[in-house]
Amino acid sequence: MKRIYALEEWCIDCKRCEVACKVFHSKSKDPVKAFLYEQPKPRNRVRVEGNRTLSIAINCRHCPTAKCVEGCISGAMTRNPETGVVTSNPEKCVGCRTCVSMCPFGAVTIEEGPTHPIAFKCDLCGDELGVPGSPSCVAACPNRALIYVESEGN
Amino acid sequence: MLDYVLPRYRVMRDKDLCIQCGVCERSCSNEVHHVDEELGRVTANNAACVNCQRCVVMCPTQALAITRWPQVDSGSSNWTLETMQDIAKQAQTGAVLLSSMGNPKPYPIYWDHLLLNASQVTNPSIDPLREPMETRVFLGSRPEILKVNERDEKLSAPLPPQIRLDVPLMFSAMSFGSISLNAQKALAMAARELGTFFNTGEGGLHRDLERYADCAIVQVASGRFGVDPHYLGAAGAIEIKIGQGAKPGIGGHLPGEKISEEVSRTRMIPQGTDAISPAPHHDIYSIEDLRQLVFSLKEATGYSKPVAVKVAAVHNVAAIASGMARAGADIIVIDGFRGGTGAAPKRIRDNVGIPIELALAAVDQRLRDESIRSTVSLVAAGSIRSSADIVRAIALGADAVYCASAPLIALGCHQCQDCSSGKCNWGIATQRSDLVRRLNPEIAAERVVNLVHGWTHEIKEMMGGMGINAVDSLRGNRLMLRGVGLNEKELEILGVKYAGE
Ligand code: SF4
Ligand code: SF4
Ligand code: SF4
Ligand code: SF4
Fold first, then answer.
1. Which residue of A has its CA nearest to B26?
2. A6 touching B, CB under 8 A?
């Protein structure tokens, strides 16, 4: 499957990826509404760690044997067997944080959801859960520090 | 002490569009923007802005634009705001004013007064999509007479060494030190892909770029930085830099802070020391001395590669070029006064030198009058802005052109003229690691290649329109040019007829 890889050599800590991710995962898909008006607040699923001299975008690897899926107690976190995309179903997530502690990449966060805190993670910008779209972070990255490429394994 | 200097620019932030994401704050090395959580808005320190436009391009909502500081001037055309600001700065510091890039003053741009011809009825134009078009040129000296052994169908004597360019342009000298390694690498990668050459400037050849050495023209300048037999031997050609269009008669000075470990290794000078290139070469005080250096370099490389000599376009450039040809230069490079630089005294940049168009025409004519034009190659430099400028330069007599500002603009340069601060937000004219990494050479090289591909298509189209199918047939073909808005003297020097003639 195609996966997103972050290259720290070229990451410049601009966080345009975070902005693009948040906007894609908003209702309006409009940056001004997404950032300033929408409730509940849309969440970005990619997160940049580091500083100006060394930074990297943290995002989901859509692992073939996904620890988050293994750990999930409610059946919210699933891996689509056909596409390989790992997503969390907000309706099923109970916010137990098991996935957060299981993920070796720190790619899942628990944040305020419509009724209670739930897991947020990269869904490859698909129109529906489990179907990859074209990742907004990759398109927004000015320095090719995020690449979306076919990778080994499934 | 209160300094009397006004801000030059003002950041215009559209409050309706700003989402306070902080991308601008993280993009600006001059620390202009600040997301103020307490105020709940983004503020700007306008005085620090140099108008590099990085934040404008990076802002995800197009909330930004930079404008001039709105202060009106005194109303005098003589005491303009800029003139008065320069005085205020010097009154404050007592120093020479420094600036960068090329001469920005409104001197005439002769390219814009030269129109190209196209075939109609009496001779056919050529469609470059259907018929072959040759953009390849060879640079180097040529024998006066070509002796051919007709029976063996071979040359009786070998040709002098030449370099082959698939497109009639090369990237002008920019040293590692004045630009970042990523910028130089991007140009090297683009040169390889395009079948042309980049120029190391006088900063030596970084070891990471040795694999591009065959596409490199290595410079030998007055500081002789980075010059050793390996450097000379690795390159495609050697260039002796006597002068540079942006600062004729002036040496160079790369301050110690910029001599990082890598720069020091490549230039072969101690880390942290100032890299001073003297104004003259201390071993060149005459054409005869130049000849010695030309032949020393040829000896050192076994006469295997052409030696170019580069001078700034100045008053007697035609006579100087004639001397250079006689001194053994295989390629003569003339750099006009609009050529850029990483740092130059502002007064020199703005007031010294002459336009490349006039210099090129004068040199080509002089070499023709002396019947030596065909023995050397002629390269024009100093603000070639488009494919049309290349076509005009070739028609005025150039074999090829050198471009630097245009490829830098392809890399992101917005001509803010603040190169000398070392804080280039585009990762070009800087050695700061957090800024250098902003320029991914892979993207940068692609952009330069795209630009040159676009230009090459346009050159073919313009040549096709004239009914010409090879750059070789355009060279010095001034009948393909007509002047507009020029006086008799200008037409005479340019050697072109007036439009309508
Ligand atoms: S969230 Fe973590 S464990 Fe789950 S698929 Fe992504 S990277 Fe793997
Ligand atoms: S957009 Fe790209 S360069 Fe900017 S922070 Fe994200 S990964 Fe890094
Ligand atoms: S980058 Fe644009 S939207 Fe973001 S804080 Fe700056 S001005 Fe506002
Ligand atoms: S210096 Fe450049 S990045 Fe900084 S505010 Fe001015 S235009 Fe924007």
1. A14
2. no
